[in-house]
Amino acid sequence: MNKIRIINLALCVMLTTMVSAQNCHIKGRVAVPVLQNKSISILNMNTGKQLASTKIVDSTFALDIDVDEPFVAMLKTDPQYPANPRSYYYLRIVGEPGEIFADLVTDTLSGTPLNDRLYQYSKKRDYEVSVINAYIRQLNEALSMPADRMMELTNKMEQSMDKLFSMMRETYELNKDNPVGALVMEDLLEYDDELDYEKVVNMLEEASPVVSTYQPLKTKLDALEKVSHTSPGKPYIDLDLTDYKTGKPIKLSKVIKGKVAIIDFWASWCRPCRAEIPHIKKVYEKFKDNKDFVVISLNVWDKPDAQAKAIKDLGMTWTQLTDATRNATDTYGVDGIPQILLIDKDGTIIARDLRGEEIEKAVKKALEK
To answer: In principle, which of 59, 86, 348, 357 could form an S-S bond with 31, CB 3.0–4.6 Å?
Structure first.
C-alpha cells in the first residue's frame, strides 16, 4: 500500500469519525437552594471520566457533549455540604444524540428514546420497591401481630419481590442490546439475592458489548464470582490478617485450627454490625467453653481508634482480628457489612449472611454433628 493511499485512508477514517459524532444537549433542573451556583457534571460511567461541567443558575443547567454511540452516563452535582462528600444529587441517564431533560430532585427524565425507556423502567422499579418497603415497615413495627397476619404480610411482600424481579428481567431482555440493559442488570444484582454468578453469566452471553463490557457491572460480577467461590459448601480461603491484641501478623487458619468458627466482618461505624454484636456475644458466652468452637470478629474498613473504642464499649472479649488492606472483603466478595460466616470443623463454609437468632441455631447444629 503506497503512502498516498495510506493518507487517504486515514483521512477517510477521520472524516467518518467526525460525521458520526452527534450532539447531545442536556438541560434540566436542580431546585435545591444550597446548590445554586455550584457545579453539575456529566460522567461516562463506563470510564469514570467527566465529560462536561457547568454551573446551576436559577435552578437550571445546560450541558452539551458529542456522542458516537449511546452509553451509560450520570449527572452529578457538587456536594450540598462540603463536610459530607456524599451529599450530592445524581441521576443515571443514557448519553445519546438529541435533547434530554432531567430533573435531579424529582428524578424526571425525558426527551430521547432510550431515556424515555429508562424513565419508564425506573418509575416501575421505584413503585415496586416502595410497596416492598411498606410491607417491611409493617412487619418491623408490629412484631407482636398474630402469626396468620404476619404470614399474610410476608407472602404479599414475597409476591411483590417476585413481581419486581420479573419486571426487571423482562426489561433486561428487551434492552440487552443497549445501555438501559446495563443499568437494569446492575439493579438486578443490587436487589435480587437469588441471582448467582452462573445465572448472570448466562444472561450476559447474548448481550451486546455495551452491556457485557459495562465496567460497574463487571465490577459487581467480579464480586459475585468471589461470593460463588466462598459460598456454602466451599472450603474457606485463608487470609493474612493482624491480631488486634498484639498488632502482629496472623493467619486466619491459625485461629480457626479445625474448629467450628464464626467469622463476623464488621466495622465500628456500621450500625447493623453493632446490632448483631449482642447476638454474637450471647453465642460466645453459651459455647465459649467448647474447645471445638471459636468466635472471630474481623474488623474491616475502619480506623484503629474507632475500632478500639467499639471493642471496649461493646464488651467484645472474644478473638479480634483486623484487615486494613481490603484483601479479606475482596477475597470473600463482601460489599456490605455485617457479613457473618460459619465455618465447619473440616474447613467447609456452612453459611453466609447469618443474622440474629439464626447464628445460635447454626452453631448448635454444627457442634452437634
So the answer is: 59
